[in-house]
Amino acid sequence: SLYVSEYFSQSAQKLSFYSWYGNAKLFHFHVPEDTVLLRWLLQASRGKGPECTSMEITVHFRHGAPPVINPLGTRFPANATVRPSYNISITLSSAVQNTTFVNVTTPSAGDWFIAAHLPEAAGRIEVKGFSTPCPYMFQADMFVLRLTDMPVLEPGVPMPHTIVSPAKPLHVKVFVPKHAAGMRFELRSCVTSEKKACAVRVVLGSITLPQSFQRILTCTGSVNCSLALDSPPWEKWLQIMVESLGTANASVSVEMLASFTVCRPGSASSFLNFISLNQSQTGARPGTPGAAGSSAQSAGEAPHNTSGQRSSCLQNQPVVREDLDVVSVRYRLLNGPSVPVNALSPTLLLLNLNTGMDSGGSLVVSLLLNKTSVSLTNATVAACVNAASPVLSLNATRNCSTAFSQGYPLSVSTSSAEATLIVLYPQTDDWFLSLQLLCPKGQGERNAAEAKVAVFAYLTPCFNDCGPYGQCSLLRRHGYLYAGCSCKAGWGGWSCTDDTKAQSIGAQNLATLLLTLSNLMFLPAIAVAVYRYYLVEASVYTYTMFFSTFYHACDQPGVAVMCIMDYDTLQYCDFLGSVVSIWVTILCMARVKKILKYVLFMLGTLLIAMSLQLDRRGVWNMMGPCLFALVIMIAAWVHHGTKRRHCYPSSWKRWVFYLLPGITLAFIAVSVYAFMETNENYYYTHSIWHVLVACSVAFLLPPRDKHKKPWAWSQKLTCRYQICQNDREELYAVT
């Protein structure tokens, strides 16, 4: 045998603390056919700074689809089937780097996914630039050992082989045909070179994580041994590994035989249904021969097809796959939404999910029983949703298990006519829905019994679009797309259906009122600015108050939301108004000449607008203008003090009653904004930030110029009559 080793690598990713599925970093690999050994090389590292501490990294593995994980222990939506993922933990303690190997023998070919993340996020809102988070990096590499000339075991043909030693097991493969109802594997004529008792172990199937359904057969002595499998995976290569359990120097000669039991399906005329579907979508052309007789012909053949279906082992129902969008598919039954289900043989529907881009959503299957169509009382329609191969005997197997997989059961009856199943991240494969009528014991006419079941199946990025308290986000890893729900207002879970920590409607309304009405504290600052003739500054404060109010009204996570314009526009205007308000306030305190002040106003506003467009949440977008304005203010104050030969401002009352309180309020506001805000206390800590900043502006604004008189409203706005003189010049023409 010739073995070939291959190596696949992907770039490292920076890990994040976990709060939703988007924080998990996904790696997507493809394992080739005939792989006998798979080795993962997992490399984790962290920074060397003092902020880096010991950390535990969780790594999840899954074949066929991204792993379904639940690090926060939240609830999944009702009717969702969840099987725990296979995961390991990597600890970064004193060592800066950790290397871990994970070996998988005889792995299943196809897509494999790895998801890595840090522990649960603390929930603290960190201002970009105030603190430097520790970088935790993770990289996954894949080594495969592939057999280039794996022998093929032909069905019904005995194949003799020799196992040289226990260290070199024998690998063969057999192709499972479509509609295979069962497989029988036989091992016979087992002879050792030392003429001792033969002892071999046979492993059928490949490993698929998180669950593996390999079948193991141990054969001892010269007696033939066999293994029967129900519903093997259709149209796939099945790996078989035979290894010797004898001594190291003894070779073993065996003969293998594989045989299949093929089921003969019966179905309605798919060709006629396809013509009927085209006519229903586009309409029959006028004057087309046979356009009106197609439906009559198919209806006339229905009794003949039904009689043929009674003698077959399964009934195929034609299904059309309709692609709607990314990770969005709808399945349409050509015979209508209702399918006939009988007790003799299962009704089979094929749900095609093998494009490689369908595993990043949620498969939803809903059944609705027509109670009037059931001829027997207390009858039940059992259903199984399976990947790779269907369940062909639902009356005997109620747990929906096949040869190498475990399906998902469903059932409807006259007492419970509806049933729904949600498969999160379905693996890439052909999926099958099997339905069969189960009649109660003691009731006659079992062969003639039939029921009508309406089937609705579709693939959606996020189930129920994450509900009213979640947002469905489309995530990307290289060319692979998958979806996840980001929850808000305290809701959690895979589809934002877990209300354990959810905010009540009253709490949501309170949060909205606090964050919006706290901006009204700018009204005193606006009044002070207008009274002291700082009209430009008052305009900036009004702009900031308006957009901060409506930005926070639009930014709310709950139901108390009002957006007067695009969210991104509101956010940009709020950030711009906040920084420009600080800029003009400090420049106003500098008491520079008017022409210079207004030039700095405009130039600074333009530069701030540019920097916010580059990085809206950078701390230097606020600290930069503040520091530069403070330098200008201090230089101006030093100039005024030198010119007057005493401290500026000269009044101690100005320092004690205005400047010191204003500076204190501003310092407390920055401390609350930078170090105290979390996701839980955001609505009141940020409201405190609004109040403190607005109050500090009212204290810090300087008094008006001495040569300006106060506003005389009685003289400015007159409401009495005045006698006006109308001067008119008359022009005379001179001739």
TrEMBL record:
<dbReference type="InterPro" id="IPR000742">
    <property type="entry name" value="EGF"/>
</dbReference>
<keyword id="KW-0812">Transmembrane</keyword>
<feature type="compositionally biased region" description="Low complexity">
    <location>
        <begin position="283"/>
        <end position="303"/>
    </location>
</feature>
<dbReference type="GO" id="GO:0005886">
    <property type="term" value="C:plasma membrane"/>
</dbReference>
<dbReference type="Pfam" id="PF12036">
    <property type="entry name" value="DUF3522"/>
</dbReference>
<keyword id="KW-1133">Transmembrane helix</keyword>
<feature type="transmembrane region" description="Helical">
    <location>
        <begin position="510"/>
        <end position="534"/>
    </location>
</feature>
<dbReference type="InterPro" id="IPR021910">
    <property type="entry name" value="NGX6/PGAP6/MYMK"/>
</dbReference>
<feature type="transmembrane region" description="Helical">
    <location>
        <begin position="682"/>
        <end position="701"/>
    </location>
</feature>
<feature type="disulfide bond">
    <location>
        <begin position="462"/>
        <end position="472"/>
    </location>
</feature>
<keyword id="KW-1003">Cell membrane</keyword>
<feature type="region of interest" description="Disordered">
    <location>
        <begin position="282"/>
        <end position="314"/>
    </location>
</feature>
<comment type="similarity">
    <text>Belongs to the TMEM8 family.</text>
</comment>
<feature type="domain" description="EGF-like">
    <location>
        <begin position="458"/>
        <end position="497"/>
    </location>
</feature>
<feature type="disulfide bond">
    <location>
        <begin position="487"/>
        <end position="496"/>
    </location>
</feature>
<feature type="compositionally biased region" description="Polar residues">
    <location>
        <begin position="304"/>
        <end position="314"/>
    </location>
</feature>
<protein>
    <submittedName>
        <fullName>TMM8A factor</fullName>
    </submittedName>
</protein>
<feature type="transmembrane region" description="Helical">
    <location>
        <begin position="620"/>
        <end position="639"/>
    </location>
</feature>
<feature type="transmembrane region" description="Helical">
    <location>
        <begin position="595"/>
        <end position="614"/>
    </location>
</feature>
<keyword id="KW-0472">Membrane</keyword>
<keyword id="KW-1015">Disulfide bond</keyword>
<feature type="transmembrane region" description="Helical">
    <location>
        <begin position="655"/>
        <end position="676"/>
    </location>
</feature>
<keyword id="KW-0245">EGF-like domain</keyword>
